Amino acid sequence: MRTRLLLISHPATAAQRKGAFPDDDPLDARALEEAEAFRASNAHLLEASLALSSPAACALTTAQALGFAPHTVSVPALAEMDYGRWRGRRLIELADEEPEALAAWTRDPSAAPHGGESFDALTLRVGDWADAFEHRGDAVAVTHASVIRAALMHVLQMPPAAFARIEVPPLAVVELRRGERGWTWWPAHHRQA
Prior knowledge:
The chain has seven helices and six strands. The chain has helices spanning about 15, 30-40, 55-65, 90-95, 100-105, 120-130, 145-155, and strands at about 5-10, 50-55, 70-75, 135-145, 175-180, 180-185. Helix 6 packs across helix 7 (about 145-155). The chain is globular. Its EC number is 3.1.3.-. This is Histidine phosphatase family protein. It is an enzyme of class 3 (hydrolase).
């Protein structure tokens, strides 16, 4: 039996809509409405024998809005990238205050000038989790855009510099399948809310 893993990015938080790095932000009413609309139009995707989530409030609340509570398993490896001292800070502020550090971070996947996690470290964390993931059948994981990027980087064995070229919008769905060839990426068939 194969493993099918759907990775779903949570809706944008209010902080993200203002251009700030995440800081375990909760979902506001707008984001909850978006998650509920997604659930209504994509119920066919949400049938799984296992529901996983990042431990972040926005991901756990999204999982609940998608109908997975109370059976959702919180997985630390699916946590948002650690942005260190940049957590909660707006990009525009950092561009003024730390332009060299921000530029280095966007160009060098091994850089972590904020004192947190680099893109390379995130990809290693997510890749290690994916390789160790033991489940047969369908699973759904609610997580963050950065984690989904890292999963794609790992599965497709992309060079580290490609990380910044993968865009994962809110409530995006990425389907991964594991079989004889290992993990593969498949287009997810979902309807926009």
